[in-house]
Amino acid sequence: MFGVGKRPDGLMRDVAGGAVVPRPGVVTAAVGLLVLSAILWATVAGGDPRLARSSGLLLFLLVLFAVRAGLGRRKARITVAVVAPLLLLLMLSYLVQGSTGPDRFGGAASVVVTVVGMGCACAGLALFFTRGSNAYVQARTAVLAAK
Predict the structure, then answer these.
(1) DSSP 15-65
(2) Are 35 and 133 in contact (CB under 8 A)?
(3) Alpha-carbon gap, residue 49 to 51, rounded angstroms
(4) Radius of gyration of the CA atoms of the chain, in A
(5) 56 pLDDT above the threshold of 50
């Protein structure tokens, strides 16, 4: 967003003069995994209008707040920690209902895509709460509070 330059003392500052906190790779991976899970679940939800209605807003919130949490926003990270398990439960109930009910949904491909999306969401959520991620959010919160 802002141009970053190195000062003679080695500290990095953005153009506005604020400190730049380097984003660890686990945060980038967490955002990528959560967005990937939302994309996979959206493809599954597109085949069933009831699921699309019930999960559409949650999928949008997951993507929006995952990106904001990747920028170091504490409240966004908390929101992701609430929305992702809700979507996991919704997709799990759809998976159980669809695979055991009389009218089986989309076949084996939908089951695989749903399970892969669940794995990506669990991994992304776990990565958001590692040590490196916690340190990044604390540092970004301090930088944002100083502005």
Answers:
(1) TTSPBPPPPPHHHHHHHHHHHHHHHHHHHHHTT-HHHHHHHHHHHHHHHHH
(2) no
(3) 5
(4) 19
(5) yes
The Cα–Cα gap between 62 and 101 comes to 28
Q: How confident is the model at residue 146 (pLDDT cuts 50, 70, 90)?
A: confident
Predicted confidence (pLDDT) per residue in 118-142, tens digit: 999 999 999 999 999 999 998 888 8
SS3 4: strand
Question: Do 47 and 106 form a contact (C-beta atoms < 8 A)?
Answer: yes
Close Cβ partners of 86 (under 8 Å, ≥ 6 residues apart) = 58
What's the CA gap between 13 and 3, in Å, rounded?
9
| Nearest to 84, CA basis, from 137, 31, 140, 26 | 31
Residue 46 corresponds to which tokens in the numbers above? Answer: 């597109």
Joined tokens for residue 54: 């019930």
Average pLDDT, the chain: 83
Q: Which residues pair with 108 in a beta bridge?
A: none
CB 12 within 8 A of CB 20: yes
Distance CA 41, CA 94 (A): 11
